Amino acid sequence: MARKTIIFQRACGPLFFLLIVASMTACASGPKSGEQTLRPGPQRLPSLRAQGDLVIATLAGATVTVEPLTEKALDAYYARRPSLLNPLKIVPKQTKGLLAFMLRIQNVGGDRITFDPGQAALVDQQSRRSAALSYDELYTLFSEQGKSALALRTLEETMLTKFLVIPPKLEREGLLLFPPPDPGAKAVILEVGSFYIGSAEQLLLFEFEIRRAP
User: Fold this and answer.
1) What is the rounded (10 degree) CA torsion for 97, 100, 179, 188?
2) Is 197 exposed, middle or buried (0-12, 13-18, 19+ CB in 10 A)?
3) Separation CA 175–CA 77 (nearest Å)
C-alpha cells in the first residue's frame, strides 16, 4: 500500500503543481477588489443589440459601436500607440474610476453624419447625469504634468471632444471619458446625443450593467 501511495504522489505531483499555478494565475488576472466593469445589459431600442462586450446600433446609413474599456483594455489600446499618453497612467489619483468607452461610427450611407461629443451623457438608474470630459478638462489634466505637447496629440488622435463630420463611406473612432459613477449605481445608459444622419437626429441609448469585484 505504501508503495502505491508513493507512486500516486509522484504521478500526481506535477499535475497538482500545475493546478495550483493555474489557480494563482487566474486569481492574479481577475478583477481587482472593488474594481468596476461594465457589461452590455438588455437593449430596449430595437436598432441596438449586444454582441459580447459590444453594443451595436444598426441604423439606416450608419453603424455605431460602443465598447466599454477596462483599465487593462485601455493599457493595451495605448500600448499600441507608444508615442501617446495613457491619461489614466499620467495622473492615476485624479483619474481613478473614470469610465472609458470606445465609440466607432461607420458611415455606410449617402448622407454625411454629424456628432457633437459634448452632448454625450452617462445616466444611471436614478437619473443622475454626467457629461463626457471636455477638451479643456482633459487638456488641463495633462498639462498640469508638464506634458502639453503630448497631451495635444493624445486629445487629437484618440479622444472624441470636438464636433465631428463624417462623409459617406468613411468612419471615425475615439474615446469618451466620463467621471466615476455614483457608488450606488447598478446600471448606466450612454446617451449619444446630437447625432445626425443628414438632417435626421437619431436616438442612441446604449445600456450597460455595472459589476463590481468583491
Assistant:
1) -100
2) buried
3) 10
Same domain, 95 and 14: no
pTM of the model: 0.80
DSSP structural state of residue 118? G
The C-alpha cell of 129 is what? 447625469
* Cell numbers placing 38: 461594465
Q: Are residues 84 and 186 in the same domain?
A: yes
Contact 119, 132 (CB under 8 A): no
Structurally, the chain folds into a number of domains equal to: 2
Residue 167 grid cell: 462623409
| Angle, CA 172 vertex, CA 59 and CA 163 arms, to 5° | 95
What would the grid cell of residue 103 be?
Answer: 465609440
pLDDT(102) > 80: yes
CA 76 – CA 90 distance, rounded (Å): 15
- CA of 62: how far to CAs of 100, 164, 208, in Å? 22, 14, 21
Cα(22)–Cα(143) distance, integer angstroms: 43
What are the start-end ranges of the H helices in 85-176?
A: 87-90, 92-95, 135-143, 148-158
With 0-12 / 13-18 / 19 or more C-beta atoms within 10 angstroms meaning exposed / middle / buried, residue 29 is exposed
DSSP single-letter state for residue 42: -
Q: Which residues pair with 166 in a beta bridge?
A: 113
Give the domain extent around 95. 32-212
pLDDT digit string, tens, across residues 15-67: 333 332 333 333 334 445 456 889 999 999 999 999 999 999 999 999 999 99
